[in-house]
Design goal:
Elements: H1 8-45, H2 55-70, H3 73-79, H4 81-88, H5 94-118, H6 122-130, H7 135-174, H8 176-186, H9 191-227
């Protein structure tokens, strides 16, 4: 469907909805990364046999993460309405959608970061312990840097998931491309708008995936050069 079939008003609405989606996704991505990475680290280091073994803590945190991850996003949005209102003062609009988006993606990213850090060579960690590194130093100087390519890949997966979730948020008053598709494409019987929304979402996801893969490769190459004694 060529975009010149859209009226100027609808085109302007499409651009505005794209801005809203970009805002929701970017803010939620930053917040979920800041919350999810420490959570992932906690899941790794408190696991049996790791540097700060705390089986009870690991089980509790893991259970909470799994419970949140298993909750359908649309149900979570409704369930945390009082919390959303408490945080942002409203339950509709892009600002309100950021709250459930962040809560939904944080445990996902935590598990992805955990998986990446579990793949770090145990010998590297043991070498750091042998020279007297503290658990905090091991996390900051060994665990996270060595797992960085996997963590970057996890951020990419989280971003793609956020884009999908943001469209669902739009259907219940969150704004963005999902809201536009429902209001124009469904309620006003304008299938060309729905197609335009889908095209924009596909392009957005592809762009995120390409950039994320490129950054992960670049980080991986840098780590490989460092291991070989390069710069």
């Amino acid at each position: 469907m060529p975009f010149d079939l859209l009226s100027p008003a609808v085109t302007a609405a499409l651009v505005e909805s794209l801005k809203q989606t970009a805002f929701m996704v970017s803010v939620a991505a930053v917040l979920s990364t800041l919350l999810g990475l420490p959570l992932g680290i906690l899941l790794v280091v408190t696991a049996p046999g790791h540097i700060a073994e705390r089986p009870a803590v690991n089980r509790v945190v893991g259970t909470v993460v799994n419970l949140v991850r298993s909750t359908p996003f649309i149900i979570m949005m409704v369930a945390i309405i009082p919390f959303t209102r408490l945080v942002v003062g409203t339950t509709v609009g892009t600002a309100a959608a950021i709250v459930p988006l962040t809560l939904a993606i944080t445990p996902l990213f935590a598990r992805l970061a955990e998986t990446a850090m579990r793949e770090v060579d145990r010998g590297v960690i043991e070498a750091a312990e042998a020279i007297g590194a503290s658990p905090w130093e091991i996390v900051v100087k060994v665990l996270v840097p060595e797992a960085l390519p996997g963590i970057v890949a996890g951020v990419t997966v989280a971003l793609v998931s956020l884009i999908g979730y943001s469209t669902m948020a739009g259907t219940v008053g969150g704004g963005g491309l999902g809201d536009l598709g429902v209001r124009y494409g469904y309620q006003r019987f304008m299938p060309e708008v729905m197609v335009a929304v889908v095209v924009v979402l596909v392009v957005l996801v592809q762009a995120v995936q390409i950039v994320g893969d490129a950054v992960a490769r670049a980080v991986n190459h840098r780590i490989a050069r460092r291991r070989r004694g390069g710069v």
